[in-house]
Write a structure and sequence with these properties.
Layout: H1 10-23, H2 29-55, H3 63-78
Amino acid sequence: MTRQSVTLSQANEQWLQEKVQNAHEYNSKSELINELIRKARRADAINQKLAAAEAAGFTDKSAEQILAEFKKKLLIRAC
């Protein structure tokens, strides 16, 4: 692993410290920062795939139309 030195705003430093101390999910700020970066990388990969799919023209429906159609199907299955 490489070591990095970063400068954080006071608010971000406080938030990190609180997450490590109170959440008990992370042993250190480094562990939490690595988790945040993994989540950001995953979100970026998903967004890239979505953009590529949209550019491919797989549908001419809007996001709102797709969501409404999906919700309608969920309601039909629930009945």
